[in-house]
Design goal:
- It contains three helices and no strands.
- Helix 2 runs parallel beside helix 3.
- Helix content is 70%, strand content 0%.
- With 102 residues, it is mainly alpha-helical.
């Protein structure tokens, strides 16, 4: 009986990780690749990146008291270079979350 409970918990945990972490990150990456984000979305992308990084750090028992984003982001534009940086960072987080969800 106990093994069944653990298996059920594993299924629930995998579902939660899929719905709250993997799916949203995939949507962001797809949106970046398909040009759905604009310059006005940089603050949104920064907040999402920081949130997912904080979650990953908590899972790794790493103290996350700082920020991964520079404080002054005025003047940043979402050109190919910036877009590729976001894609790379979100992809790294995605790989981590997918790896723990196997």
């Amino acid at each position: 009986m106990k093994a069944t409970i653990n298996t059920e918990n594993d299924v629930v945990n995998k579902f939660i990780i899929d719905v709250t972490l993997i799916d949203p990150i995939n949507k962001i990456i797809d949106g970046l690749k398909n040009g759905k984000y604009r310059n006005i979305d940089i603050n949104y992308l920064d907040k999402k990146l920081e949130h997912f990084t904080e979650v990953a750090c908590k899972m790794l028992n790493i103290d996350f008291s700082g920020t991964v984003i520079e404080n002054d982001r005025s003047g940043v534009i979402l050109n190919d270079y910036t877009k590729n940086i976001y894609i790379e960072r979100f992809t790294t987080l995605l790989r981590y979350f997918e790896g723990i969800n196997k």
